[in-house]
Design goal:
11 helices; 482 residues
Length: 482
């Protein structure tokens, strides 16, 4: 068979797969998730309690958050916070991915989507702060098969393209930044409008087109350099390195003030992280001279006068929390991590399914699920629909079902911020008498100061795990994903 005929067969196979996956994942409707009124709910460092005013006091929970991060909240406040997180799922009918004829990531791209969600949370902290919530969060409708069918999405995108073609985005590199053009009205209105532009631009970076800075096409292209191709299964450690490369290579001026670091062998080298904070990105102007809108400090409103003398760093730490299954001794560690506001979540999953963990209640993790097939949305339009990028339905799963391979993420705004994070996490990482080995560790100095090429000792090789003398751990970091 000639090349032309072979290409036609591949295209036909891809089309059939797309149709099958669309049916399979578009009909995966999510049932309601039950939450207890008797235990706190933690969501990326924010604590909520669903106790009604006339309820009796809650029963004692197995995990109690510290007073510093305890926030009394009701169901509505939790719903708004959860639905404000950026949700990235399977998509179909987007432009072919690099090196393939695939026009959908259904069935294999869930770990990449989970990684995108974690990265999006870091960018929300960077530009908008942890207190930010989306104004449209509570208006989201429950997921159903009619919400984002191919026909409806195409019709909506076409109408938007016709009416809104050519409107500028907030990070357009112009002599007079867009955010100065909306100074009319009250300061609160201007701030809300500016934050909504940040929100929309942030989502557009994850669009499903070759030009999207952090989109699936860019991630797949970077994966090719690591031996991964579109359609392959990606593990949480591989995705961490792909995300790092994507952030480093992003050319949008809005991303000049942030970079990423991936730990080595469950070890965070502090001097390397601090170097990332203080060194300007090669080939770009230093952050304080960039024409891009600066990053807010902590949860302060975005402002053109906010100083920015260093880059923020996204810290990604691939770990393994057990052998074939997650060791129960690490459950409280995971809870402690998800109780920190600078934690951007955990990408991992359960066997054969990747997901993005954002919180917990009692002994159940709360997560966002990428296994929902939605239609391609053209994010190049200035007012593309945002609804399909926010999830109205949290899901829960027992800690006992969590796959031991995962990547933990943190956001550090500055070198000073990193030092505080290092000190706090060092306390969290102190192993108990039962645990014996921490999930990861901090080391002063640069990685180059240590001979990482030398053969590791047995203890060094095994300390991230709970050792089982009856079993030799040989499983790799990659999942088998649906």
């Amino acid at each position: 068979m000639d090349n032309k005929g072979s290409d036609e067969v591949e295209k036909l196979k891809t089309k059939f797969l797309s149709v099958w996956h669309n049916v399979k994942y578009s009909w995966a409707l999510k049932s309601k998730t039950s939450f207890s009124r008797n235990s706190p709910v933690l969501l990326l460092g924010k604590c909520y309690h669903f106790k009604a005013e006339d309820d009796e006091g809650p029963t004692e929970a197995s995990y109690e958050p510290s007073e510093d991060n305890f926030v009394m909240g009701n169901v509505e406040a939790f719903r708004k916070d959860f639905a404000s997180r950026v949700w990235l799922t399977y998509r179909e009918e987007f432009p072919p991915l690099p090196g393939s004829t695939l026009t959908s990531d259904c069935g294999w791209g869930c770990m990449l989507r989970a990684g995108q969600m974690m990265l999006a949370q870091a960018l929300i902290l960077h530009f908008l702060g942890r207190e930010w919530t989306w104004s449209g969060a509570l208006a989201l409708q429950p997921l159903d098969t009619e919400t984002w069918t191919t026909t409806a999405a195409k019709r909506l995108v076409a109408s938007l393209e016709a009416s809104l073609q050519g409107s500028p985005g907030p990070f357009d590199n112009r002599s007079e930044p867009v955010y100065q053009a909306h100074a009319a009205g009250s300061a609160e209105e201007a701030d809300a409008h500016l934050k909504e532009m940040y929100h929309r631009t942030l989502v557009s970076w994850f669009g499903d087109s070759p030009s999207a800075q952090l989109g699936l096409h860019r991630l797949v292209c970077l994966g090719l350099t690591m031996g991964k191709q579109a359609g392959d299964w990606y593990g949480p450690a591989v995705v961490a390195h792909i995300l790092k490369k994507a952030v480093e290579k992003a050319m949008d001026p809005g991303l000049a003030g942030i970079t990423a670091y991936v730990s080595q062998d469950c070890t965070v080298y502090s001097a390397d992280v601090i170097d990332n904070h203080r060194a300007p990105r090669p080939g770009q102007v230093s952050p304080e001279r960039s024409d891009a809108p600066p990053s807010p400090q902590n949860d302060q409103p975005v402002s053109a006068s906010t100083p920015s003398d260093s880059r923020a760093v996204i810290i990604l730490i691939p770990v393994r929390l057990g052998g074939e299954k997650t060791n129960p001794e690490y459950f409280n560690f995971a809870k402690s991590i998800l109780s920190l506001e600078y934690c951007i979540g955990i990408i991992g999953g359960k066997p054969k399914q990747a997901c993005y963990f954002v919180g917990f209640q009692d002994d159940s993790l709360i997560y966002m699920d990428p296994h929902y097939c939605q239609s391609f949305v053209d994010v190049s339009t200035s007012d593309f629909p945002l609804q399909s990028y926010h999830c109205p339905s949290p899901k829960k799963m027992p800690f006992s079902k969590m796959d031991p391979s995962c990547t933990i993420g943190f956001y550090s705004r500055s070198a000073e911020d990193y030092e505080r994070i290092r000190q706090e996490l060092s306390k969290v990482l102190q192993p108990s008498a039962k645990e014996k080995y921490p999930a990861f560790t901090f080391v002063q100095g640069h990685s180059r100061d240590y001979d990482l090429s030398a053969s590791l000792t047995t203890e060094k090789r095994e300390w991230p795990f709970i050792r089982d003398p009856r079993r030799t751990v040989t499983t790799a970091g990659d999942f088998v994903l649906l």
